[in-house]
Write a structure and sequence with these properties.
Length: about 325
Amino acid sequence: MTTPLGASGWTKELRRARLHFVTGKGGTGKTTVAASLALALASGGRRVLLVEVEGRQGIAQLFDTEPMPYGERHLVSAPDGGELCALHLDAEAALLEYFEMFYNLGFAGRTLRRMGAIEFATTLAPGLRDVLLTGKIKECVTRRESDGRHSYDHVVVDSPPTGRVVKFLDVTRALSDITKSGPIRGQAEGVVKLLHSPETAVHLVTLLEEMPIRETLEAVDDMVDAKLRPGAVLINRVRPPRLPARSVTAAADGRVNTSRVRSGMEAAGLDLAPEVLDGLVDETVEHAIRVTAERSAMEQLGEANQPRIEIQDVTEGIDVAALYEIADLLVEKGVR
């Protein structure tokens, strides 16, 4: 899924996707962006499922609800009549569901849980946990109602961070750790087909900072090597420059004309004490240095050759209203 260098917005290829994994380095706002993306996709009357796989109850915290048990539930209404549902996944519940669906072992499965056999099984075959979780996600994506329509128009997954996301999604490799035949393996092969299809995209959340940018570029390369489809790079907490473009370079070098700043303040009716004026000049230099660094980071992101969307900083803090605000911005950028 490649686009011209510097492309931005939600491409035609991304509009084909129904399964959206959202990853990013810790601290980049991955869960916030995943929730906002799900709201954006639900606008216009669509039904979307937001899935959590890491057991942190991050979705419940974002939407200020009680901790979520295993199971799909209505979360909030989306703009224009849409609906956002949520699913908190855990490997043990998924395995018990597999036992009941494929082996008719509902009661026996609960007995195995009490014996600790499920934890033993997922420890013995580490790849089994990810197969179980991605298998449940695949079931949600492909499930249909009695009228033949998909139960969900889109499924958005708050995924593991960039350092672990490829291992989580590389179900092909995980298959070598589990049984060579049977229903679970058959389900896993269906997962492989879905994850490597145009219906799936893996979006990367980043900040305009060195470490998140580096992890983003490395993750894109790793995904391509694993034949997964990188989606959009979602640049979070973007702050607008406060200086004219022509002034940034000089200010970043510390070349700020204090006399001109004082004259400008006086013309605006502000008579600042010398120490206040010096502080203002220092802040101007710091701001220009940050703007210069962010410009360089944006140029680095061009190496990923992926569509990009900038998400403006929500300085008031993240709450449900902020999620809707970010979702509206994503819709304006073409997310649908």
